[in-house]
UniProtKB/TrEMBL annotation:
Catalysed reaction, written as an equation: 2-dehydro-3-deoxy-6-phospho-D-gluconate = D-glyceraldehyde 3-phosphate + pyruvate
Protein name per UniProt: 2-dehydro-3-deoxy-phosphogluconate aldolase
SUPFAM superfamilies: Aldolase
Pathway membership: Carbohydrate acid metabolism; 2-dehydro-3-deoxy-D-gluconate degradation; D-glyceraldehyde 3-phosphate and pyruvate from 2-dehydro-3-deoxy-D-gluconate: step 2/2
EC number: 4.1.2.14
Designated gene of the protein: eda
Amino acid sequence: MTTGTDLLALSPVMPVVVIDDVGDAVPTARALLAGGIGVIELTLRTPVALAAIERVAADVPDIVVGAGTVTSPEQAKQAAGAGAKFLVTPGCTDSVLDAAFATGLPFLPGAATVSEAMRLAERGVSALKFFPAEASGGAAFLKSIAGPLPQLQFCPTGGITASSAPSYLALPNVGCIGGSWLTPAKLLAARDFAAVEKLAAEAATLR
Ligand SMILES: O=C(O)C(=O)C[C@H](O)[C@H](O)COP(=O)(O)O
């Protein structure tokens, strides 16, 4: 996997995961993998996120682990150092984009408007995260821009559920969708990894 476009092809759903207890990282990754999802985005929203990436990279080599919520150049560097195989950003600035390019990792920069998407395309990006998807116009927005921007592929994320997923996945410019519904905080707090595996198995058949 070398480009953002390769990243979109890994799975119909990119699980967006918030880890509070670093001990949950490996069992969560194993549960997703057992359910048929071969990719995990660990968000840099908690103090243990980088350690969680390190553990998954070391202990669950069969899942492709990446870092989400990358909002600064330093975080891009740190995530790469921790063993992340890809980066995802909710939006994008020039400095974050430069730092992401510098890691050499595939990455999905976030965009929510046509102009943001065009600016990223000018920088050579062809796979983007569309965030926050539901709040920014949802599937109808992506359908509208497939005509003028046919070269761009998206991973819409934000407010998507198992029931709204098919309307996104049916679009020609959607490579995969992102969502946190496979790993709800409640299930992780209860360490109910069997339930995570079940949600993953359902998500794996979405496309
Ligand atoms: O953390 C990031 O980098 C984000 O951009 C936000 C996440 O992608 C969404 O919070 C996931 O959306 P939900 O599935 O609605 O929970």
